[in-house]
Amino acid sequence: MVLDDLGTSLRSSLDKLQGKTRLDEDDVEEIVKEIQRSLLSADVDVSLVMELSDSIETRALEEEPPGGTTARDHVLKIVYEEMVALVGDSTALPLEPQTILLAGLQGSGKTTSAAKMAWWFSTKGLRPAVIQTDTFRPGAYDQAKQMCERAEVDFYGDPDADDPVEIAREGMEATADADVRIVDTAGRHALEDDLIAEIEEIERAVDPDRSLLVLDAAIGQGAKDQARQFEASIGIDGVMITKLDGTAKGGGALTAVNETGSSIAFLGSGETVQDIERFEPSGFISRLLGMGDLKQLSERVERAMQEAQEEDDDWDPEDMLQGEFTLKDMKKQMDAMNRMGPLDQVMDMIPGMGGGMMDQLPDDAMDVTQDRMRKFERIMDSMTEGELENPRVVGQERTRRIARGSGTDEETVRQLLEQHSMMERTIQQFQGMGEGDMQRMMKKMGG
Ligand code: GDP
Hints:
Blueprint lengths: L3 H12 L9 H17 L4 H17 L8 H17 L10 E6 L6 H14 L4 E5 L7 H12 L2 E3 L7 H11 L5 E5 L8 H14 L3 E7 L6 H11 L4 E5 L8 H10 L2 E6 L7 E3 L2 H8 L5 H18 L5 H6 L4 H13 L3 H6 L7 H5 L4 H17 L3 H5 L6 H11 L3 H22 L5 H9 L2
Helix pairs in contact: 1-2, 2-3, 3-4, 4-11, 5-6, 7-8, 9-10, 12-14, 17-19, 19-20
Bound molecules: guanosine-5'-diphosphate (GDP).
The site of guanosine-5'-diphosphate has 20 residues, from helix 5.
């Protein structure tokens, strides 16, 4: 996750305040130093670090915590508010029809991000289209077209044309049916005058509602110059940070956001079109500080459940709450879990489970769990339909057969059966609840 190390060190310095009711200057100084150290090592611009740490220091010392607040909570609240203000208080992109222009250097991930964003808007019920105007980089057209096909979104480009401004103009006409148009532009290795002139012309041709700067998370201090120049030429309304799967830094993006007075719009964390997350400042900072992010979590749960259901029309999560909870249901649940992404990311979103707690687990703890999930899946693949429907028929004899068939061992088969009965009991408790309670519970999770 972006700024992962920053989160870890912030949490540990906050934890040092545990049990204290009053803050003294030494405490504040120590925390502020820690914050500075971690921001700088995440590549955040020096003057920005100073600005941020100064205001945290002043507020921590001057503001009177409300009665009953511990020193830790007082500082946590201030750090939270200052960090949220830094990454942008509101989401940069409302969910509405609009034209978005993408800017950035070559290789920053613009083309990939255009398709990702289009995919994201399509999951929200809007009809997106990508317009590819990059005539500079060979292969940009094919790459964009392929990714848009994979994302199942409209695409416009012209491999034979060489005037990007003309392509942009025609693209706007050709995609008149779309709600959201995402205009991809060419990049260069460095900011050259002709690149700036070209993007300014495209900007005039498409008259975007928003322009986003696409930045590689690994970019450090260079972010400042880029942000400044693009801001001066076309005006930047938000930043998409890409390649977060490759680095835990991402501080350059914070610098860019600050420089352009904009906010982070999206995070990209992989090469496929689904590897995108809309950035929600408060949720993100909560996660960073170990406060959890229930909104993200419930979105993921919802999506995973929906996907699992789409694949198997006969299966409805609601059924689980009506009748019996079979091993088949459990398998579906495990599939859904897998779809939510790596377990540690999911855990990070649960308040109290996030950050601090994960740090106490050995690094491989999550792998073990996922390893076990895979074994469970193999075991279930070796079971008969009847056994899946009614696991009670599985005795000693069948356990042996299933263990052999799945290439696991009897102990693991028994663990699976135990886990199933545990989940069954939990589900039965839910069944005692009235209609709609589940929805209400999910809503509550969503905040
Ligand atoms: P452009 O020149 O700005 O259009 O950049 P591209 O979209 O072609 O991306 C450059 C490279 O980065 C490609 O190999 C992409 O697959 C890769 N890439 C883009 N976004 C991500 C990301 O979030 N994670 C990873 N791992 N790779 C990415």
